[in-house]
Write a structure and sequence with these properties.
It catalyses: chorismate = 3-[(1-carboxyvinyl)-oxy]benzoate + H2O. The chain is α/β, with parallel strands linked by helices. 31% of the residues lie in helices and 22% in strands.
């Protein structure tokens, strides 16, 4: 079989996975690209990649999504990198600007506004808004400079009592069992020592990589996170379609 085309995320939260892959013999069997979440999803959806860590909302876009590993980007409560930032209390927000880099986080924000805060807001993709969704490394060090900060992992657990899986490793076709086992072991090795990825990372005010990688993030795709994926997709399907949106 030719090399498996793998798309991974360029954010800090995926670095433990990447360190595991790069130190594993599985690297000889993959063609690895590093992208932002929506691009990972696009590649898997369009068959430009065979396997990727994709936002869970994109599962609805793949004909036969195969979650092939025991690992994910997840949290059990606050995640400290998926936010609504706002100039005013969430109850007063009338417009929300979405983040083009991840449909899942946008959907999570809209689910929480509808079912937790019970606030019907207008959605925009650009321009001024009362609040905006922002994810990943672009949020690091920004909490102190914004009037109102809402961690979506925290409020998801308040709404559902469940942890959350933001992205999972998904294949769009059957892959060899020996490859899956080797890939899964590489991920396990990488997340077993996440602090090793910290040296050399940019320094941000009021942001602690060690806490983020060892406490905020929870990489195990357990029963609770699988239940959360099912619940999220159920609620996501109740949202109205947005006319202008990224492909994923």
């Amino acid at each position: 079989m030719s090399k498996v085309r793998v798309s991974a995320v360029s954010y800090t939260n995926t670095l433990p996975f990447l360190q595991g892959l790069k130190s594993s013999p599985v690297m000889d069997r993959i063609d690895l690209s590093v992208d932002y979440p929506a691009e990972c999803a696009r590649k898997v959806i369009t068959n430009e990649a065979d396997l990727g860590i994709i936002p869970v909302a994109a599962l609805l876009k793949i004909a036969n999504p195969l979650i092939i590993t025991d690992y994910c980007i997840g949290s059990d409560g606050a995640v400290d990198s998926v936010f609504i930032f706002s100039d005013k209390p969430i109850s007063e927000v009338k417009t929300l600007r979405l983040d083009p880099q991840s449909r899942t986080s946008n959907g999570l924000a809209r689910i929480l506004l509808k079912y937790y805060w019970k606030n019907d807001v207008d959605i925009v993709w650009e321009g001024n808004a009362d609040a905006y969704v922002l994810i990943g490394d672009r949020t690091f060090g920004k909490k102190e400079g914004v009037a109102y900060v809402y961690d979506l992992g925290y409020f998801w657990k308040e709404l559902t009592g469940l942890p959350f899986a933001y992205a999972v490793w998904v294949a769009n076709k059957e892959l060899p069992v020996d490859f899956i086992n080797l890939f899964n072991q590489a991920l396990a090795d990488g997340v077993s020592h996440p602090k090793d990825v910290i040296p050399g990372l940019p320094i941000y005010p009021n942001f602690d990589y060690e806490i983020y990688l060892t406490e905020s993030l929870d990489f195990k795709l357990n029963v609770g996170k699988r239940q959360a994926i099912a619940k999220y997709l159920e609620l996501y399907k109740t949202l109205e379609e947005i006319e202008i949106a990224p492909i994923t």
